[in-house]
Amino acid sequence: MSQNTPRDWASHPRYISPDYKSSRLRGVSRNLVEIDPELAELTGPAFGEEVVGPLDYDLTRNGRVNGEPLGERIIVTGRVLGENGDPVPNTLVEVWQANAAGRYVHIRDQHDAPLDPNFLGAGRCVTDDNGEYRFITIKPGAYPWGNHPNAWRPNHIHFSLYGPTIATRLVTQMYFPGDPLLELDPIYQSVPAESRERLVSRFSIDVTEESYALGYVFDIVLRGVNATPVEA
Amino acid sequence: MAMKQTPSQTVGPYFAYGLTAQQYHYPHSQYAGGCLVSERTKGERIRIVGRVLDGNGDAVDDAMIEIWQANAAGRFDHPNDAREARPLDPAFKGFGRFGTGTMPDNSFRFETIKPGAIRDGVAPFISVTVFGRGMMNHAYTRLYFSDEGDANASDPVLERVPADRRDTLIATRNETATGVEYRFDIRMQGDGETVFFDF
Predict the structure, then answer these.
(1) Which terminus of chain B has a lower count of CB atoms within 10 Å, N or C?
(2) Residue A170: strand pairing partners
(3) How far apart, in whole angstroms, are the C-alpha atoms of residue A210 and residue A82?
(4) CB B81 to CB A39 under 8 A?
């Protein structure tokens, strides 16, 4: 019998987390309707190396115009796993983030901090046979936002992943260890206490490269899939 | 070894230059957008147009919609669908993505084909996933077609949906000067809240 493991609602935020103001009018308010997954939910888009540019894993290079981007260079790596612990190979991982000053390239971001002409802040790569991905980037800065007085987002990198089916789709954010803004951030705090720390990367001296960049490890666990191809 | 799922977080307001860069004219590549078809794609050309409405009924201008669908023969382009009797269409992958921040009315738009029913006894449909600023988790729904009344009436998934909410899943067909258009507004909250699924 083909199936996806259920969405683990004890691990995820609620749709409406009132401290995160914009969830109040945008979160699903009625109960979800449970359905048995069929082919539509046991399949999904598969994108691989064909959609990844040669420099897209390296955000310190894929947006260069006339020099190196400013800020602290870091390496972010980890494994993408299913809930059963098996690696998820050959799946697309996409990231986007603010620059070192806490400013996004996005036109809506009007924070009074400099744009960096040599940093786009978007990248992608594909996991290898062991489910591993690796990015080189600039450590993103914190930035203010309008959620409440003196609100600041902790340093974070946005992640988007597919996994093997539409059920395994995940969009999340990676944070950095020891960030004092985490306990004040309603988006991070919307996650149940016991699963929150899964969003915090860990510093690794093994990933750190001498005279080059600090290393952070962020493993990502998707819903599991146990699917047998449907033949007829 | 059993692992625990990584929690979801909102896609935030700034996904556009990472996930839908060309639609928003940012200097980054984009591999899936609002047009799923080419001249060679088999099937009836349709356009899907809709908005994402918040609890006040206002159209959200920073949501992102993804669609996933079978081809005209009712086959998914994925190894888990190995039904050789239903041919794959090399000119149709079945996945699209569109942000709601580029059209004047904050709509999403997909140029695609009407999918075939994926098996006997079910109505044709398109899987729709909604992301957005203010959404801590993405939400899954389905788009069914208003001109499939008989098939919709006996569809096993629609039967799971309370009768008074089924019409939130039915896109309305209109014949326009520029082709067949289906209207599918997604209401996040309130009267007529769209049915969202867990599976």
Answers:
(1) N
(2) A161
(3) 32
(4) yes
Query: Which domain covers residue A143, as residue numbers?
Result: 3-23+43-202+216-224
Contacts of B7 in chain A (CB under 8 A): 11-13, 172, 191-192, 195-196, 198-199
CATH no. for residue A57? 2.60.130.10
Does the distance separating the beta carbons of B134 and A23 come in below 8 Å? yes
DSSP annotation of A97: E
In this prediction the ipTM stands at: 0.97
Q: What is the pLDDT of residues B140-156, one digit of tens each?
A: 999 999 999 999 999 99
For residue range A141-173, what is the model confidence (pLDDT) as tens digits?
999 999 999 999 999 999 999 999 999 999 999
Mutate to test the interface with B, among A96, A120, A168, A222 (most CBs of B within 10 A): A96
DSSP annotation of A189 reads: H
Whole-number Å distance between alpha carbons of B134 and B122: 34
Bridge partner residues of A93 (DSSP): A125, A161
Contact B23, A102 (CB under 8 A): no
